[in-house]
Amino acid sequence: MSLNALMRWLKPREMIFFDLLEEATANVYQAAQLFDREIRSNDPTRFAELRRQMKDLEHNGDNLTQQIIERLNHTFVTPLEREDILHLAFAIDDVVDRIHSVCERLILYRIGHVMPAITEMSSIIVEGAGEILHLTKSLRNMSNQKEIVDRIRRVHALENKADSIYHAALAQIFEDPKDAIELIKWKELLEEVEHATDKIELVAKVIGSTVMKNA
C-alpha cells in the first residue's frame, strides 16, 4: 500500500474534491444543454447571446479547475490520487472549452444556418455530458462497478456514433465543393463539435481508470 493510500485509510477524506468535480461536470451538462437548445433554434440572431453565455460557463469551469488545483496544493490527504484528480479536472474543463470554441466560430464565420450533422452531434454531446455527470458522482462510492462500466460503454458508443456522423458530413461537404472558404469553415466547425465528443469520452476513460485503481 502506498503512503498516500495508507494516509487516506487512516484519516478523514477531503470530500470537497468530489463536490468540485461534480460541480465542474454539472457545468459541462449545462453548457451542453445550452448549446443543443440554441443550435436547434437554427437562428443565427441568437448565436451572439449563445457565445456570451457559453463564455460565462467556460469561465466558471476555469474557476472550478483553479479551485481544485489550489485545494491540492494545500491538502496533504486526498480521497483519490492527486494525479487522477488533476487529470480529471483538466479533462472536464476541456469539454466546455471545445463547446465554447464552436460558439466562437459560429460568430467568427458568420454562420447563417446549421448543418443537420451538427445538430445530431449536439444531442450526443448532451447525452454524453449526462453520462459523465453520473460517472463523476459515482466516485464518492465505487461499489456499483457494473453501472460504472455500463455508463463508460455508453459514452464510448456515443463517441463512435459521433465519429460516423462526422465522417459522413465531411464526405458530404467535399462531394461537390463550390466555395473553398465555405468548405474550410464547415470542416473546422464539424471538427470542433466532434472534438467535444472526444473530450467527453476522455472524461469517462479517466474516471474508469481511477475507479479501477481505487476499487
What does this protein look like?
The protein is mostly helical and 215 residues long. The protein has one domain: Methane Monooxygenase Hydroxylase, Chain G, domain 1, CATH 1.20.58. Helix content is 82%, strand content 0%. The chain contains seven helices and no strands. Helix 5 packs antiparallel against helix 6 (145-175) and helix 5 runs parallel beside helix 7 (180-214). It is globular and about 60 Å long. The chain starts with a helix and ends with a helix.
Overall pLDDT level = 91
Q: Biggest β-sheet, characterized?
A: none
Low-confidence stretches: 5-12
Helix-strand sequence: HHHHHHH
Structure summary, number of beta strands: 0
Task: Describe this protein with a few key phrases.
215 residues; mainly alpha; Methane Monooxygenase Hydroxylase, Chain G, domain 1; 7 helices; globular
Q: How is the secondary structure organized here?
A:
Elements (H helix, E strand, L loop, with lengths): L2 H8 L5 H26 L5 H27 L8 H27 L7 H22 L7 H31 L4 H35 L1
Helix pairs in contact: 2-3, 2-4, 2-5, 3-4, 4-7, 5-6, 5-7, 6-7
Kindly summarize this structure in a few lines.
The protein contains 7 helices and no strands.
